[in-house]
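Ops channel
N.P.: pipeline sanity check, posting one input/output pair.
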């Protein structure tokens, strides 16, 4: 029988309940495993004898391993290739920031170094976005709760993680049950990541957005919009046909009414496709009744797969100025991180030869 990850929260709680073992032991087991990567079950102190037997027969301290860790030349970004128990692999990216650099509102920023982890939720992706390397893989499988949480476990042993973004491989809301359970693990002891420091990105899975706030209150929702009108969106995001823009915006309006939270809008800048001034005005009119932060993303080429060009800096600046000045929409341009190790936005892909750019969520929330 294949053993499950000890971080598969629902499964371990069920097994403990069936064996009559108090589930309150589980967080302390997680803490010990996180702090002692090479531990055996018998090393964990003060558990009932039946717990050691159960853990040994049905669970592993970790079902995945780091196959490689590539650092960018500036040492700011680390891309992890994580090999799963079934032989498949996913990628996670650690991005380091120093919040004391620069100014905000004319004042020096407070704080210091912090790290954000970009997590994958699936092997491959079925959304097929034409500008995204992961989309070229097709969909392989959903990750389990444990496989999602283990990315945080691996990363936390390299750098203390304060923020998490579900912007890696896969469409998170297409793996909804495992996503919700994994986030509940991450926000509880011993991880204790603040919900406000976690962002989930989606292409716009409407039925999942409708229940997102109820299941995961206080989290940040990011929507990969990428076009201001339905026809352009369908051309670059085939999955958009199933989620018409008008229905998506109605769903987001209802979400914002319930949550009273900003929505983060991701918009990739594709030369001559969606980056003209008319597109900026269309986007401004679409979003002017919402409380949003628009994040303009310079397109990251994906080698021979690239059918798009990167927008010129001047076009990005004009696009940003229109949204800011004409529609009073807060608009940022995403900082490039990890391009040299293919760890930037849209570059995560597992090739047969085993060969991100993100604006820090804390900066956007200010």
């Amino acid at each position: 029988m294949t053993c499950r990850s000890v971080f598969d929260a629902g499964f371990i709680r069920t097994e403990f309940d069936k064996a009559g073992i108090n589930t309150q032991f589980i967080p302390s087991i997680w803490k010990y495993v996180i702090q002692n990567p090479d531990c055996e079950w018998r090393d964990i102190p003060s558990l009932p004898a039946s717990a050691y037997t159960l853990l040994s027969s049905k669970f592993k301290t970790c079902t995945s391993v780091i196959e490689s860790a590539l650092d960018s030349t500036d040492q700011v970004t680390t891309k992890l290739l994580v090999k799963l128990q079934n032989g498949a692999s996913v990628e996670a990216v650690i991005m380091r920031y120093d919040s004391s650099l620069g100014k905000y509102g004319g004042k020096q920023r407070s704080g210091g170094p912090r790290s954000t982890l970009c997590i994958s939720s699936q092997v491959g992706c079925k959304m097929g976005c034409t500008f995204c390397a992961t989309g070229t893989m097709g969909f392989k499988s959903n990750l389990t709760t444990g496989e999602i949480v283990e990315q945080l476990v691996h990363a936390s042993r390299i750098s203390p993680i304060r923020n998490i973004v579900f912007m890696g491989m896969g469409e998170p809301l297409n793996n909804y049950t495992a996503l919700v359970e994994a986030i509940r693990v991450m926000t509880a002891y011993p991880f204790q990541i603040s919900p406000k420091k976690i962002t989930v990105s989606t292409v716009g899975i409407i039925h999942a957005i409708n229940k997102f706030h109820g299941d995961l209150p206080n989290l940040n929702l990011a929507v990969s919009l990428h076009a201001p009108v339905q026809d352009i969106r369908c051309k670059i995001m085939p999955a958009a046909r199933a989620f018409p823009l008008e229905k998506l915006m109605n769903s987001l309006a209802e979400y914002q009414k319930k949550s009273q939270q900003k929505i983060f809008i991701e918009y990739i800048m594709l030369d001559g496709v969606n980056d003209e001034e008319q597109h900026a005005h269309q986007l401004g009119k679409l979003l002017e009744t919402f409380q949003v932060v628009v994040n303009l993303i310079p397109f990251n080429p994906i080698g021979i797969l690239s059918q798009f060009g990167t927008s010129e800096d001047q076009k990005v600046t004009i696009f940003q100025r229109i949204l800011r000045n004409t529609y009073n929409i807060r608009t940022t341009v995403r900082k490039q991180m990890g391009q040299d190790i293919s760890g930037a936005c849209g570059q995560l892909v597992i090739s047969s030869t085993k060969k991100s750019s993100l604006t820090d969520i804390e900066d956007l929330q200010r």
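N.P.: looks fine end to end. The radius of gyration is 21 Å.
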